[in-house]
């Protein structure tokens, strides 16, 4: 069956956008882009945020299924945590699309930047600029599925480059990643005072990168570089101004939103989707192109 | 002992008594009526009722855990972390091919022990439970992280494990049935058995209870152990429902569990944590979230409305009281 | 062989010796009276032999056997039960539930369920047997202080008691309930139960005791046979000085003096006080008497502004108030000494100093800070005046003996330099000397043209102290008599409406 | 007449008294010594001391807010949300070109009002503060979200706004100075003024305080207002430090603030929430995080160790007490 049913009175399609991470800068950007796309297509968009709580997200997803929404877009969410709900949406004929999420059986499709790919891009850049050797601090948050993928790629590359030493890995507190990363970095700088004892900071996304760069800047140390992933505007701004933050990967969030919207339009028109896992290409940002 | 002032009966007093005892229940009913009128097609359906009953099951069960600890006038702030850990342990066991019943029993046993340790620290050294369980929560969080490496466990989870979380008996979800059984069981334990009354006695006046000869430490430890066990059970059920276990899955439940329990304290037995009250509290929270989502109220407005309605509900109940 | 014998019992609190080298024995079927000044160590002694406190030294023999009693459970096991000086009830529990706390509650097999009906039936039967009137459906917090005492007494009676300890059981009981208590004591001793009876009411001690033990400063100052004991002798032993009972005071005729307090047709929202009027003239000590539950406490609360007024007015020094509040009352120079000192009189976790100065804090404050030296000075003065036994002004009041706490409450009121005193059972728990001191102080206040409204359950006290007595029955003032002429029979007749 | 004389003797009693009053302080010092020995070069340096003092400044200030509300025996669970809102309001004002002092004053004023409303609901309707402030926290969260659309505010924040958060006076960070001033100010208010004394009296026994003529409602409302104001100030300072305001920046502080306050209750005045105690509590939490990070202990082990040390610290203090 295609679109499940009760569109609103004026005939417009209702789409429900669900995420647990609306307060994350990038997720927010993506949701905004999705809303804009929906408007352009003449759909009504309803955004639901559960503030980091995935259990809640499952409940809210059930609610929109019960209220017979026309489509569901899950943003920045690991679909493995919503298997049952995705199945029941499918049973009711409600398409579930992912935006920066992941694809599992039962979903229509997912558009994302390839987390592994992005991590590879920026990590390779970093390792190259270090001459494949140095001392690396890792600030990450493995509880986030996307960030986890990036960190796993790093783990792999560290194995391949034995001269890049991991000084330590710290998990950043969420919420409050900037402040938390900043504090951790301040302490680590004091613990490693010798020049060269830390040569770079690898972070799982831009917010900890910003915190770490602020700490390095305040300490006056010139020999440490930071990389992030996301390309959020504060980070890009810092790269431009020449802070310790030297590179990030700009995810094409509007692009992802556009892909999702296109595929959804296909679904509404009863056409096939172009693929289940579609990528919006991400690009490396450094001082040269910031 | 605080002396409250009393009055004689009259019809206005009857009303106010009704409000005082059932104020929150009435508020809950009003909320349901409101959503039904505004949204008959989606909200006031059997499907949605079933849906809500399943959604609140976690909150009810963990809330009952919180309530039991509150009945002895203590707090367990580690229930959220305990739920996360419980889910992770269960998922680990089942993913590595362990039998189903082991996946349910081990987390609960672990929780009984951890709860007992919480209780022991609190009663043996007379440390405030607030700081003890907050610290324990940190410990459990670290432990969960160590078990999972921070990642969600979702591979190799067999369908059998998802049975309770995802299947229904006829049209009634298994989760709703478990929730009802837990509620009735603990209502019974807390109100009809000597053990339950002892817990309330200790919560009502610890030194009087000691002087009356109750084994205060033992009973308190038992309350902490039961509370933790219910939290772990919640975590296991969540994992079963989601078919995966996230290392922080239960954390978000912790404040909500106390919200439910405190809302519940305004129902039935005023000022006393009680099982059905917690059930009603959890139901109000669940209905609000469901109804507002169905009405497509934007998230931030949902927050504002939820907060305001909760405050209004408790004030309403108090007005019943003050009218006296 | 004695039922209970203690040897060389010691107890310290910090550096303070509450008990030192106490030796004492109690015989089956006998009543041992225990007396001593406030803070002499009576309650501490009881708490040790009932397992509430652990002793720092000494030994306890039960039927000649050495015993260590480490918890109230141990004491219960031996058959030692106690009615402590302060009530120990669960506020939100009904009378029934409180009654069965810590005793064998009727249950079905395996403790799977409480048999509520059986529980009530047994309780009602006991109540009848004891001849008590008490609504056990009420929760403990809804009960008045005397009702709570009765409830705890019933609880004790449910047990199989070999030694019953009563720590000032009559502190807020009226004659009626006191009679019940005495009857029970007689029944129990006849069955061979030993009684340890602590009281500051000497006539009770002389009436009940077979022997009288006297504590002084944590030591046993000696045990007397009833026959050899008399008031002056006992008190001399308590204080280690020669004691002569004070002469009864002169009574005042103050009817010509200006009216300080006039209560006109006052009634409360909850109906506990029906429209009532009374006057207190400058220089007068006016009593209010009634049976338990007559509404005396409620009347004082309404006057002071802690119970909502329905109709009527309170006129203080000519100024009329239709809505009262403690702030207004204090401003007008009226203080209130509440009946329940633990929950209404004191902030138990604060020091003596902080408690005493609480209503008058602005007086010690420069606006920016509290002048603690001035505070300490004033507080020490009053502690001395009231003979408060404590380590110093910085001791926490929860660490004081019951009587000394009451003295702090009283000193707090006096410190406010009021013109009007509302006293609800103001002398409960204080020792004989302090009681006389309080009476003397109040009379002194009256002589300085101040007024006192005095509520007590002790009929002798009210006849002793008051110039005029109002009798309250079921929330209404039914009679007014001059103190000098009244007799206790007369008062009770009015109360019972005979 | 006779106040009982006590004899100064018995050294064991002296020791246990020392532990009882300063147990947590001693534990804190032991922790510092431990880190200094393990890591002299990095931990035990002036730089790091300054660093820690800045890092704990937020926790100290918001913890003092929590402490003030606890002094009247109430809870304010909305301080985290209040801090977030405070930061967002300040950032909004400054980003839209408002003057610096307005950006500091407005959030604090808004907080005073919100805190007062919390207090009013609690005292007027005698609703439990736990549920009231939890609901208020939801409302504030929604409101913050509405203000920001969920996004971080970081554009157009001038350097002047970052001054307090990022600069130092000589080598002492401005934040540390603000923290000390706030601590000393509120230590003074709570212990040396009539107002502070009244708050503690109300917290100790509300009905006795009422009978003593204190304006219970008014004072409680004031405590809530002050608590909220300090939370908002914390949020503004955080925004100043980060040069940006995140809609949930302060939320993580809420539980830590209570952890600090409860740890503090075991210092100085036992069982009583007190300002310097909270300071010490926050310092212990801060030193642990800093020291363990410097030692490069993995995060999950940090959690476990932190939890265990906190429990050990409070137990140590109790042992001092029980030795009596
Ligand atoms: N918990 C405590 N901490 C410190 N000192 C205490 C404590 N309990 C009692 N004391 C002290 O021990 C002494 C004896 O007190 P106790 O209560 O036994 O006196 P009491 O004879 O019962 O007096 P009262 O007639 O006033 O009831 C007093 O000086 C009191 O201050
Ligand atoms: N808070 C309360 N709730 C319900 N009933 C109460 C409460 N307080 C008192 N009572 C009832 O009111 C009656 C009288 O109370 P109270 O004892 O205060 O009166 P009283 O005249 O001052 O007598 P007394 O001073 O001897 O206690 C009691 O019989 C009791 O049943
Ligand atoms: O995908 C984004 C990541 O890039 C990071 O910003 C964390 O939040 C997620 O939503
Ligand atoms: Mg005593
Ligand atoms: Mg009375």
TrEMBL record, chains B, D:
Subcellular location, record wording: Cell membrane
Key words of the record: Cell membrane, Membrane, Transmembrane, Transmembrane helix
Family matches, as InterPro entries: ABC_transp_permease
Pfam families named in the record: BPD_transp_2
Topology of the protein relative to the lipid bilayer: Multi-pass membrane protein
Keyword Membrane appears in the UniProt entry: yes
GO MF: transmembrane transporter activity
Residue spans crossing the bilayer: 21-40, 52-70, 101-121, 128-148, 168-189, 222-243, 275-294
Cell membrane in keyword set: yes
GO CC, one annotated term: plasma membrane
Protein name: ABC transporter permease
Organism: Paenibacillus selenitireducens
TrEMBL record, chain C:
Keyword set includes Repeat: yes
InterPro entries: AAA+_ATPase, ABC_carbohydrate_import_ATPase, ABC_transporter-like_ATP-bd, ABC_transporter-like_CS, P-loop_NTPase
UniProt domain ABC transporter: residue ranges: 4-242, 254-494
Recorded GO MF terms: ATP binding; ATP hydrolysis activity
Gene3D superfamilies per record: P-loop containing nucleotide triphosphate hydrolases (3.40.50.300)
Alphabetical list of Pfam families matching this protein: ABC_tran
Signal peptide: none
Residue intervals passing through the bilayer: none
Domain of life the protein comes from: Bacteria
CDD domains per record: ABC_Carb_Monos_I, ABC_Carb_Monos_II
Keyword set, alphabetical order: ATP-binding, Nucleotide-binding, Repeat, Transport
PANTHER family in the record: CARBOHYDRATE TRANSPORT ATP-BINDING PROTEIN MG119-RELATED, GALACTOFURANOSE TRANSPORTER ATP-BINDING PROTEIN YTFR
Protein's recorded name: ABC transporter domain-containing protein
Natural source organism: Paenibacillus selenitireducens
């Amino acid at each position: 069956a295609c679109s499940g049913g009760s569109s609103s009175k004026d005939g417009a399609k209702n789409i429900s956008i669900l995420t647990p991470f609306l307060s994350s800068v990038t997720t927010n950007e993506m949701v905004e882009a999705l809303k804009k796309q929906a408007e352009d297509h003449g759909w009504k968009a309803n955004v639901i945020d559960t503030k980091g709580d995935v259990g809640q997200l499952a409940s809210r997803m059930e609610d929109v299924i019960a209220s017979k929404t026309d489509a569901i877009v899950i943003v920045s969410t690991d679909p493995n945590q919503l298997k049952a709900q995705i199945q029941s949406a499918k049973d009711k004929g409600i398409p579930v699309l992912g935006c920066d999420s992941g694809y599992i059986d039962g979903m229509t499709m997912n558009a994302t930047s390839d987390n592994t790919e992005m991590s590879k891009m920026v990590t390779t850049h970093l390792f190259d600029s270090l001459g494949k050797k140095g001392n690396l601090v890792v600030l990450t948050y493995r509880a986030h599925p996307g960030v986890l993928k990036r960190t796993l790629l790093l783990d792999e590359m560290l194995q391949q480059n034995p001269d890049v030493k991991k000084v330590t890995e710290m998990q950043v507190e969420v919420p409050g990643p900037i402040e938390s990363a900043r504090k951790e970095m301040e302490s680590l700088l004091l613990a490693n005072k010798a020049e060269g004892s830390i040569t770079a900071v690898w972070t799982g996304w831009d917010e900890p990168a910003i915190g770490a760069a602020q700490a390095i800047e305040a300490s006056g140390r010139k020999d440490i570089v930071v990389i992030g992933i996301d390309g959020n505007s504060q980070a890009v701004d810092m790269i431009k101004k020449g802070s310790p933050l030297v590179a990030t990967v700009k995810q094409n969030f509007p692009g992802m939103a556009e892909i999702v919207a296109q595929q959804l339009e296909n679904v509404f028109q009863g056409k096939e989707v172009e693929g289940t896992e579609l990528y919006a290409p991400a690009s490396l940002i450094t001082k040269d192109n910031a | 002992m605080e002396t409250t002032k009393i009055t004689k009966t009259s019809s206005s007093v009857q009303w106010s008594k009704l409000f005082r005892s059932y104020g929150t229940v009435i508020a809950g009913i009003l909320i349901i009526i409101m959503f039904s009128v505004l949204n008959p097609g989606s909200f006031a359906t059997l499907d949605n009722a079933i849906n809500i009953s399943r959604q609140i099951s976690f909150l009810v069960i963990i809330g009952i855990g919180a309530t039991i600890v509150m009945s002895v006038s203590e707090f367990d702030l580690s229930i959220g972390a305990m739920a996360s850990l419980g889910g992770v342990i269960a998922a680990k066991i089942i993913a590595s091919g362990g039998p189903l019943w082991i996946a349910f029993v081990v987390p609960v046993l672990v929780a009984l022990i951890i709860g007992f340790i919480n209780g022991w620290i609190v009663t043996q050294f007379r440390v405030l439970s607030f700081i003890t369980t907050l610290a324990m929560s940190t410990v459990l969080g670290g432990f969960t992280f160590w078990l999972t490496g921070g990642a969600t466990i979702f591979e190799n989870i067999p369908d059998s494990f998802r049975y309770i979380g995802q299947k229904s008996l006829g049209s009634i979800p298994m989760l709703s049935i478990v929730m009802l059984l837990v509620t009735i069981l603990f209502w019974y334990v807390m109100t009809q058995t000597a053990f339950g009354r002892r817990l309330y006695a200790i919560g009502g006046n610890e030194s009087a209870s000691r002087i009356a000869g109750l084994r205060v430490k033992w009973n308190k430890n038992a309350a902490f152990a039961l509370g933790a066990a219910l939290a772990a059970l919640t975590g296991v059920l969540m994992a079963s429902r989601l078919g995966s276990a996230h290392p922080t899955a239960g954390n978000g439940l912790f404040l909500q569990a106390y919200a439910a329990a405190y809302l519940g304290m305004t129902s039935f037995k005023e000022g006393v944590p009680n099982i059905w009250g917690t059930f009603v509290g959890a139901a109000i929270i669940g209905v609000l979230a469901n109804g507002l989502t169905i009405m497509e109220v934007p998230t931030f407005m949902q927050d504002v409305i939820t907060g305001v309605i909760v405050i209004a509900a408790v004030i309403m109940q108090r007005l019943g009281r003050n009218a006296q | 062989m004695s039922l209970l014998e203690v040897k060389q019992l010691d107890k310290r609190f910090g550096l303070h010796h509450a008990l030192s080298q106490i030796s004492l024995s109690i015989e089956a079927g006998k009543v041992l009276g225990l007396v001593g000044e406030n803070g002499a160590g009576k309650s501490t002694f009881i708490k040790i032999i009932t397992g509430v406190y652990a002793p720092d030294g000494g030994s306890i023999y039960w039927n000649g056997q050495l015993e260590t009693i480490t918890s109230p459970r141990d004491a219960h096991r031996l058959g030692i039960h106690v009615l402590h000086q302060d009530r120990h009830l669960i506020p939100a529990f009904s009378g029934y539930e409180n009654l069965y706390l810590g005793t064998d509650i009727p249950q079905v097999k395996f403790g799977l369920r409480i048999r509520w009906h059986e529980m009530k039936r047994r309780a009602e039967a006991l109540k009848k047997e004891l001849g008590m009137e008490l609504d056990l459906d009420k929760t403990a917090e809804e009960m008045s202080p005397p009702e709570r005492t009765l409830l705890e007494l019933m609880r004790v009676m449910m047990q199989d008691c070999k030694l019953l300890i009563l720590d000032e059981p009559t502190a807020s009981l009226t004659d009626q309930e006191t009679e019940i208590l005495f009857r029970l004591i007689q029944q129990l001793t006849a069955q061979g139960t030993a009684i340890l009876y602590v009281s500051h009411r000497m006539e009770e001690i002389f009436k009940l005791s077979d022997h009288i033990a006297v504590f002084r400063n944590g030591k046993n100052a000696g045990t007397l046979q009833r026959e050899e004991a008399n008031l002056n002798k006992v008190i001399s032993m308590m204080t280690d000085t020669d004691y002569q009972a004070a002469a009864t005071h002169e009574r005042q005729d103050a009817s010509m003096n200006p009216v300080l307090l006039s209560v006109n047709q006052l009634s409360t929202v909850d109906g506990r006080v029906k429209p009532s009027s009374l006057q207190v003239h400058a220089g007068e000590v006016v009593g209010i008497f009634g049976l338990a539950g007559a509404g005396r406490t409620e009347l004082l609360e309404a006057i002071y502004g802690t119970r909502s007024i329905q109709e009527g007015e309170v006129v203080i020094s000519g100024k009329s108030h239709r809505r009262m509040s403690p702030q207004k009352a204090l401003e007008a120079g009226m203080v209130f000494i509440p009946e329940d000192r633990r929950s209404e009189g004191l902030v138990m976790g604060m020091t003596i100093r902080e408690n005493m100065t609480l209503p008058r804090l602005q007086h010690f404050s420069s606006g920016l800070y509290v002048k603690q030296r001035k505070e300490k000075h004033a507080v020490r003065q009053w502690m001395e005046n009231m003979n408060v036994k404590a380590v110093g002004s910085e001791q926490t009041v929860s660490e004081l003996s019951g009587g000394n706490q009451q003295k702090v409450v009283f000193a707090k009121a006096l410190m406010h330099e009021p013109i009007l005193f509302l006293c609800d059972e103001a002398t409960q728990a204080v020792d004989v000397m302090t009681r006389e001191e309080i009476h003397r102080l109040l009379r002194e206040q009256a002589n300085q043209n101040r007024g006192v409204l005095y509520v007590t359950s002790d009929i002798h006290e009210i006849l002793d102290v008051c110039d005029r007595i109002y009798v309250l029955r079921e929330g209404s003032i039914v009679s007014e008599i001059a103190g000098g002429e009244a007799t206790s029979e007369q008062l009770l007749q009015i109360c019972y409406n005979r």
